[in-house]
Amino acid sequence: MKNKKLNLAVVAGGDSGEYEISIRSAAVVIENLNHQTYNKFLIHIKGSSWTFINQNNEECQVDKTDFSIVVNNEKIKFDCVFIVIHGTPGEDGKLQGYFDMLHLPYTSCGSITSALTFNKSFCNKVVAAFGVNTAPSVHLFRHTLIDAEAILERVGLPCFVKPNCGGSSVGMTKVKETSGLLPAIEKAFVEDQEVLIEAFVKGREITCGVFRHEKQIVTLPIVEIVSKKEFFDFEAKYNPELAEELLPAPIPEAIDKQCKEISSMLYDKLGCKGVVRFDFLFNDTKINFLEVNTVPGLSAESIVPKMARFAGFTMSGFYDVLIREALSQANRRLF
Q: Taking the model in full, what pTM does it have?
């Protein structure tokens, strides 16, 4: 008997500076999903507007009471959701909590893990508690009294100022002089209600993708990122002429092993699900944790798809693994 095709919602858009990256990532996912296995529906989310464009190019509203749509007078409910929203509400736990209440499987970390890891300052404190090196930092809220002298006494110069809850280096500044600190903080506050200021750590940037397959935690080949700009900012991340992504990373075997071990441990300890990307800096003395991306980019320029292909996966096969794992963890036996 032929298996029934699964109704899969690919959710894209969101309300952050990573909106365009999400749209591009979703297009790659839709293109590569196996059409013999899935009925694919691109759901666009922007604020309170949740829509689907049908074959007649008509905009259909999503019924938020059960996350369903109507196509050709037929009510479509979904077997699984592929979350491709970078930033809020797809990476900070908001959508995950909504889908949890509907008992609807999805391909990312749960609501609590997503909320924790999205907050860079809180995540750093938890990671440090697991014995992983993190940079000295200062966490500011909008109501915080800003004492530039005390901040620089803690982190020194140069330092990085960034939105505390955000990604793709949007709103991030490398500050080299005291006079640049307050303007950098103001720039970061445009993007977020909280700001993180971190000490500069000299080293080479590497990143490791991790996912779970058949109950085993799997690490993807490590990539070294060499930015042609002063740091790996938003422009460098999505313009191949401004950064090199070396795959496999030309790093010592011991660093490769240690990076994968730390990434696997954090994936487990933080309760991650789906594919997650951990970013680090390493130098002659240590590996330093930078951040974790629980909904990493999946566009043609993004790192995780390159890692997966290098590891021998087709993109269709890799997405199948993520979807099967989401269904398995939800105790849904649809395959």
A: 0.89
